[in-house]
Amino acid sequence: MKKFTNTKAVALKYKAYEDMAPKVVAKGKGEIAKKIIEKAREFDVPLFQNKELASMLLNVEINEEIPKEMYEAVVEVFIWLYKLEEKAQLSK
Description:
By secondary structure, this protein is of the alpha+beta class. The chain has a single domain (8-90), classed as secretion proteins EscU (name from scop). It has helices at residues 31-42, 51-57, 71-90; strands spanning 8-13, 23-29. The chain has a two-stranded antiparallel sheet with strand order 1-2. The longest helix is centred in the last third of the chain and has 20 residues, at 71-90. The chain is globular, with a radius of gyration of 14 Å. 10% of the residues are buried.
């Protein structure tokens, strides 16, 4: 059984035209991170892996918007997600 002691996870939420910036809606390390990842898989939420970004986002409080200094890094996640969704639509 794989240990999750060094695992980190952060869940973001962003609704265009509603939110000014993405918000951290869940975060954790170890077993909490494992549960976040399991829940994401349960609902087919794509998982983006970036250890450095996860570490930085762990410093943001739950339901807080990400700081402006993180916009560029988080935009990369949303671009990746957009391309993933676009690819899924094309394969239908």
